[in-house]
Amino acid sequence: MKLDGCNALITGASAGIGTEFARQLAGRARSLILVARREERLVELRDELQQQYPKINVRIQKVDLADPGQLRELIAWLDREEVDVDLLVNNAGLGDLGAFAMSDPIRNEQKTLLNVVALTLLTRHLLPRMIVERRGGILNVSSSAGFLPIPGDAVYAATKAYVTSFSEALRAELRGTGVSVCALCPGPVRTEFQEVASRPGRRVKPGPGPEFLQVAVEQVVRDALTGLEADRPVVIPGSAMKFAIFLSRLMPMPVVRLVFRLAPKRG
């Protein structure tokens, strides 16, 4: 897919990777729809983009995608306004660091609704028109955590395994339709995600992970957009992270289990 002149919808656009997607697409897209819970941040981002790129049409929608009612309202709005979307960036996601037995059941439900259900329903709603027009792109923000079960991050890793698997299957179904599907699987990225994912009273380690594995958010988004245009199935930003994932996928599961058993537990 060529991104020039596209009409993009970006979920989770109020921070981190989502905001960076909006900034990098603003100079190329015809229009942007920015979706997130925090309206004030969306307004600030819209004003910033329209000041820098006066010709672009930017619309914002305050939506909590973990709320099925609000998700239905967003889909109804897209239909009512006859919004043309040929690039869907499913970026919104939620994590939770800590043992599953001590987790908040409501937050687990929210993670599943946001990371899995909202992504699936939005894709299903927008995809048929892309197929008819033989032009479109679906960029699903997954995670390198989805390649392995992650103790202390069990539900998040499982939802991201779904996103990657769903993306690969959908890509195979859409061969020859003119619609590209790409799963972005970043490792550690310095955004506010780590802080939001941490439980109350639990100390957050500085940074999202080992520094040698970290990739700047600007590079993550550049790699993702380049990968989508090149019709790549999976994008893992950063050479060190690519190598780490390659090694981890070569390990037999008994070895993986041994590593997890020896690793310190997350509370």
Give keywords:
267 residues, 7 strands, alpha/beta, 48% helix, seven-stranded parallel beta sheet
Oligomer: single chain
Count of strand segments: 7
Strand content bin: 5-15%
Structural class: alpha/beta
What is the overall number of helices?
9
Helix percentage: 40-55%
Describe the protein's architecture and organization.
The protein is α/β, with parallel strands linked by helices and 267 residues long. 48% of the residues lie in helices and 13% in strands. The protein contains 9 helices and 7 strands, in the order E-H-E-H-E-H-E-H-E-H-E-H-H-E-H-H. The protein has helices spanning 16-26, 39-52, 68-80, 105-133, 154-173, 193-197, 217-229, 239-250, 253-262, and strands at residues 7-11, 31-36, 57-62, 87-90, 136-141, 179-184, 234-235. Strands 3-2-1-4-5-6-7 form a 7-stranded parallel β-sheet, with helices on both faces. Helix 1 (16-26) links the parallel strand 1 (7-11) and strand 2 (31-36). Helix 1 crosses helix 7 and helix 4 (105-133) packs parallel to helix 5 (154-173). The longest helix is centred in the middle third of the chain and has 29 residues, at 105-133. The radius of gyration is 18 Å and the shape is globular. The model has no long low-confidence stretch (mean pLDDT 90).
